[in-house]
Structure formats: C-alpha cells, structure tokens
Write a structure and sequence with these properties.
Largest sheet: 5 strands, antiparallel
Strand content: 35-45%
Strand order of the largest sheet: 3-2-1-4-5
Low-confidence stretches: none
Number of helices: 1
Structural class: alpha+beta
Order of helices and strands: EEEEEH
Radius of gyration: 14 Å
Number of strands: 5
Length: 81
C-alpha cells in the first residue's frame, strides 16, 4: 500500500520544471521535496507527497482533515512494545 501525506510548501529552492525542489513542512518537520509535478504551487499551498515527490496540490481543508485523521490513527493504535 502507498501513502501520500499532505505537507505545506514553506520555501522554494528551485522552480525550474525538471529540477524543481521546495522545502515542505510536515507537522513541524521540514524536508526537501521534488516538485516537478507541481511547479505551480505557491508558498503556503499544500501538496500530497509520496516517496519524496509532490504529486499534486490539495485543498487546505482537505489537507487539515487528512492530517487530523492520520494523527488520530497514531493516537488510537494498539502498539505493543
């Protein structure tokens, strides 16, 4: 199963289409993400990221709902040490 996670674009590093990279924030953690598929993203926009690549833009409300669901899954897991 594959999982795409929403993150917020906080800084563009390179906007050239084939080599586009931006810094994207996930719950306070920032990562450099390849952005060739979403070069039209602006600072503050949410993108869905899979395997270090932003694959599409996502609405802020939907991104926040998804992040809340992911957080609740972690809080409700039955992890055993």
């Amino acid at each position: 199963m594959c999982l795409g996670v929403p993150g917020r674009v906080v800084r563009w590093i390179n906007r050239e289409s084939n080599f586009a990279k931006a810094e994207v924030q996930f719950s306070g953690v920032r990562r450099e993400i390849h952005m060739a598929c979403v070069t039209d993203a602006n600072l503050g926009d949410y993108v869905i990221v899979h395997a270090g690549i932003a694959i599409c833009l996502v609405d802020e409300v939907e991104a926040e709902q998804t992040l809340a669901e992911l957080k609740s899954l972690g809080e409700n897991s039955d992890e055993t040490p």
